[in-house]
TrEMBL record:
<dbReference type="Pfam" id="PF02049">
    <property type="entry name" value="FliE"/>
</dbReference>
<dbReference type="GO" id="GO:0003774">
    <property type="term" value="F:cytoskeletal motor activity"/>
</dbReference>
<protein>
    <recommendedName>
        <fullName>Flagellar hook-basal body complex protein FliE</fullName>
    </recommendedName>
</protein>
<dbReference type="GO" id="GO:0005198">
    <property type="term" value="F:structural molecule activity"/>
</dbReference>
<comment type="similarity">
    <text>Belongs to the FliE family.</text>
</comment>
<keyword id="KW-0969">Cilium</keyword>
<dbReference type="InterPro" id="IPR001624">
    <property type="entry name" value="FliE"/>
</dbReference>
<dbReference type="GO" id="GO:0009425">
    <property type="term" value="C:bacterial-type flagellum basal body"/>
</dbReference>
<dbReference type="GO" id="GO:0071973">
    <property type="term" value="P:bacterial-type flagellum-dependent cell motility"/>
</dbReference>
<keyword id="KW-0282">Flagellum</keyword>
<keyword id="KW-0975">Bacterial flagellum</keyword>
<keyword id="KW-0966">Cell projection</keyword>
Amino acid sequence: MAIQNISAIENMLSQMRAVAQAASAGPVRTPNMVPDSGGFAAELARSLGRVAEMQNSSAAQTRAFQAGDADVSLNNVMIDMQKAGIAFQATVQVRNRLVAAYQEIASMAV
């Protein structure tokens, strides 16, 4: 059961990476590409950093639009806000699954 949860967590993490990369219009990584060094903890930290960056960028665009900046359109503000919201929701789901997996492992008999 715990291995299934780990697989589900890895699946959610790969989906979160795909959403973040699609949102930033960067090149999409395929699962067979060699990951950067650092392992799971480093990838999780990078993912959290990207989500925070998306939220900060969205907030900055919102403030610029509210200030009347002519270079910022309402469409772009709304799209960036939705991208940041979806990325945050995916992050919360990953956290929930990590907590559930931890609780399941912690309750196992040794």
